[in-house]
Amino acid sequence: GVTRKYDFHVTRAQLAPDGYLRDMIVVNGQFPGPLIEANWGDWVEVTVTSNITGPDEGTTIHWHGLLQKGTPFYDGVPGISQCPIAPRESFTYRFRADHVGTSFYHSHYSAQINAGVVGPIVFHGPKSQKWDYDVGPVLVTDWFHKEYFRIVQGVVGSGTDRRPAFSDNNLINGKMNFDCSLADRDRPCVSNAGVSKFRLKPGKDNLLRIINGGSAGLQYFSVDEHEMTVISVDFVPIQPYRTNFITLGAGQRSDVIIHGKRGKLANRAYWMRSNISTMCALPRQPYGLAALYYSEEDAKMEIKPSSHPQQYNITRLGCNNEPLTVTKPLHRKPVQKPHRTITINVQDTLNATGSDEYLMNNQTFRVNYNAPILKAVTEGNASQPYEPLWNAYETGSGKRVIRIVWENQKVDPTNPNFYNVTFAHPMHLHGHDFQVLAAGAGSWDGSVATNALRRDTHILPPNGHLVVQFETDNPGVWPFHCHVAWHASAGLSISILERLSDVVRIPGTAHVMSQTCEAWDAWSKDN
Ligand code: C2O
Question: What is the ipTM of this complex?
Answer without folding.
Answer: 0.99
